[in-house]
């Protein structure tokens, strides 16, 4: 990196803003703002053809390239010629030594604290390194002023919107993890005022996330501020009712019943020290850390899914809740479950409404802290099934294709598995067994690459059904056996797809 300061500062977390030479530069078009953010976050050279296809998918290639040329010219005018590099074939944003980007800085300085484990890089060994990593993280979260490119939407660029939605959700999830870590570590360091401040911001960002409420309530109780804790419990009750139509878990209610000896004072005697802040157990299995630079990726055994305890020993005041009861389900995932339940009961119209609601949900309603499959991909896949059940075959196939395209873009293996199963099933029913066979082959490769053995019966039933439709010898026998195995192992998806296969929807 150059020793000189960057010439341009680009702020994309929140409303987009460009600072250059002490002033503020402006962009006239939303596509220019979107293009700048895309180049800033997807580092490296991009072909002009691919960018034209991303932002002007409905335009012929020549017209799309012409419009891209005008947007690139606007970026050069706003940032300076040195900030946009490339030639007639490729374009990229200059390195961060020239253009500083708040989102990149946010990622870099939260990375060391994102893994929710004690031996996370930067938080083990040298106490000074650990403290420095936490301080950098504390500064980094102030860069998050709101969702990525807040308020920006490009109506006729669906692939860009898919990218933007996934990035918004990933950055918001990263902030949730960073706030949780900061609250826990500041409490451990007896800096309780800061810990409570981070916990408050956490529940404002993710009101559906009950472990966040538990952390805040427990910090308040153990700091001797029981009245405030009771107030937050009522806010928690209201948030869970509003977001999930649910009540707080018994362990959350038990937090305010603790009788805690405040113990020695913290922060110059300003507040008592929490004994364990929160009293929940740590999960025995640990999160494996970030799967990429833009968001943690792990299984349901992560600390955020099973509790947010700071102390390895549980509080004696109450029994810790099990991991299965402390999952964090955002509104979008709840609507998905409701839609699936309607499908199973053949309430197709209600199912359609539920799945469509997920597709228009705001980013803060989609954040999934249990590491479940991408909500919007799942909604598209289930919407395809519901449309087929309603007799709209063409619309169903279109929705399944959109689900498959989104799943490939967001690189979520579980969502991709769902999308492949639905697309393969509907393709076979729609008279395209070759596509179904291709989906089955892709699903098999996905199973091997990501160790997803529970999806094997789905791959087998797709493959066998497609081979039977193509007239392969003995395929009908294989298809029958595969269908029985699929029905026995695939739960709700198996039940619904068997209903679809046995339906008489028009082809």
UniProtKB/TrEMBL annotation:
<dbReference type="InterPro" id="IPR011990">
    <property type="entry name" value="TPR-like_helical_dom_sf"/>
</dbReference>
<dbReference type="InterPro" id="IPR019734">
    <property type="entry name" value="TPR_rpt"/>
</dbReference>
<dbReference type="Pfam" id="PF03704">
    <property type="entry name" value="BTAD"/>
</dbReference>
<feature type="region of interest" description="Disordered">
    <location>
        <begin position="262"/>
        <end position="321"/>
    </location>
</feature>
<dbReference type="InterPro" id="IPR016032">
    <property type="entry name" value="Sig_transdc_resp-reg_C-effctor"/>
</dbReference>
<dbReference type="GO" id="GO:0003677">
    <property type="term" value="F:DNA binding"/>
</dbReference>
<feature type="compositionally biased region" description="Low complexity">
    <location>
        <begin position="288"/>
        <end position="321"/>
    </location>
</feature>
<protein>
    <recommendedName>
        <fullName>Bacterial transcriptional activator domain-containing protein</fullName>
    </recommendedName>
</protein>
<dbReference type="InterPro" id="IPR051677">
    <property type="entry name" value="AfsR-DnrI-RedD_regulator"/>
</dbReference>
<feature type="domain" description="Bacterial transcriptional activator">
    <location>
        <begin position="101"/>
        <end position="260"/>
    </location>
</feature>
<dbReference type="InterPro" id="IPR005158">
    <property type="entry name" value="BTAD"/>
</dbReference>
<dbReference type="GO" id="GO:0006355">
    <property type="term" value="P:regulation of DNA-templated transcription"/>
</dbReference>
<dbReference type="InterPro" id="IPR036388">
    <property type="entry name" value="WH-like_DNA-bd_sf"/>
</dbReference>
């Amino acid at each position: 990196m150059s020793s000189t300061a960057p010439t341009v500062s680009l702020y994309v977390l929140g409303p987009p803003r460009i600072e250059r030479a002490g002033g503020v530069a402006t962009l006239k078009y939303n596509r220019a703002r979107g293009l700048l953010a895309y180049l800033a976050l997807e580092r490296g050279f991009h072909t002009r053809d691919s960018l034209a296809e991303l932002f002007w998918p409905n335009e012929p290639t020549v017209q799309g390239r012409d419009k891209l040329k005008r947007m690139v010219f606007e970026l050069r005018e706003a940032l300076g010629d040195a900030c946009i590099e490339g030639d007639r074939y490729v374009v990229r944003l200059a390195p961060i030594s020239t253009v500083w980007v708040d989102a990149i800085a946010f990622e870099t300085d939260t990375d060391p604290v994102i893994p929710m484990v004690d031996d996370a890089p930067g938080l083990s060994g040298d106490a000074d390194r650990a403290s420095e990593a936490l301080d950098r993280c504390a500064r980094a979260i102030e860069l998050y002023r709101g969702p990525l490119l807040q308020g920006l939407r490009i109506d006729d660029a669906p692939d860009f919107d898919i990218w933007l939605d996934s990035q918004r959700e990933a950055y918001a999830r990263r902030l949730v993890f960073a706030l949780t870590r900061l609250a826990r570590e500041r409490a451990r360091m007896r800096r309780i005022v800061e810990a409570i401040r981070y916990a408050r911001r956490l529940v404002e960002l993710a009101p559906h996330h009950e472990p966040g409420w538990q952390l805040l309530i427990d910090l308040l109780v153990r700091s001797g501020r029981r009245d405030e804790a009771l107030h937050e419990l009522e806010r928690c009750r209201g948030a869970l009712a509003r977001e999930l139509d649910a009540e707080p878990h018994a362990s959350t209610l038990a937090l305010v019943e603790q009788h805690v000896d405040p113990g020695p004072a913290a922060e110059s005697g300003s507040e008592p020290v929490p004994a364990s802040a929160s009293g929940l157990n740590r999960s025995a299995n640990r999160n494996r850390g970030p799967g990429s630079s833009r968001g943690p990726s792990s299984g349901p055994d992560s600390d955020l899914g099973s509790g947010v305890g700071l102390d390895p020993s549980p509080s004696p005041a109450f029994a810790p809740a099990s991991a299965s009861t402390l999952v964090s389900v955002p509104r979008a995932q709840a609507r998905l479950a409701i839609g699936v339940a309607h499908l199973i009961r053949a309430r197709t119209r209600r199912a359609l409404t539920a799945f469509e609601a997920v597709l228009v949900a705001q980013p803060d309603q989609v954040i999934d802290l249990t590491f479940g499959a991408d909500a919007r991909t799942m909604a598209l896949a289930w919407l395809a099934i519901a449309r087929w059940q309603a007799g709209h075959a063409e619309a169903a196939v279109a929705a399944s294709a959109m689900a498959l395209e989104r799943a490939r873009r967001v690189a979520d293996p579980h969502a991709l598995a769902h999308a492949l199963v639905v697309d393969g099933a509907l393709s076979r029913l729609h008279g395209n067994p070759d596509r179904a066979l291709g989906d089955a082959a892709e699903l098999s490769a996905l199973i091997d690459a990501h160790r997803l053995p529970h999806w094997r019966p789905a791959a087998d039933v797709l493959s066998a059904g497609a081979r039977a439709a193509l007239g392969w010898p003995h395929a009908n026998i294989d298809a029958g056996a595969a269908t029985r195995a699929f029905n026995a192992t695939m739960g709700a998806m198996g039940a619904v797809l068997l209903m679809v296969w046995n339906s008489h929807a028009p082809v």
